[in-house]
Amino acid sequence: MTLKPKALSLAILFVLLALPVLADQRPGQGPGGPSANPSVLTNPRFLARYLNLTPAQITQTQGFLKTLQTALQAVQTARAPLCQHLRTDLGVSNPDPATVGRDFLALVNNQAGVKAALQAFDASFSAILNGDQLAKYDALKQLLHLGDRGPEPLPVCP
Hints:
mainly alpha
């Protein structure tokens, strides 16, 4: 199979864009693991150029990104107290398993909020794309392994 020069250039661009994402891994995690950075997919300039978005699509995308940022900020703000609460409950001489379990489940729910916010952005953004744009966007997501992460990782407190 031979690639046309433009297709080859796009393939090289994909690889170059994916390298920092794939390199951002913690020990023992493969590509697309919990530390994979989907920031390429939320970079408005990249999306606008790569997908050749119309001005109306760019405006809509900026709105979706503001909504995503607000949702992620709320989830991340809630995470620190949840972690502190878990640490406190684990720090007593005889931790109550039920209490620790509730604390941990609160962290799991918090992590689910991040996933839900990213999925909402993806659904909203995908809905405004035409067929060719959507195919390119889906191909980029596939390249970054964002749709094939396997089981959800356990939440971790910093």
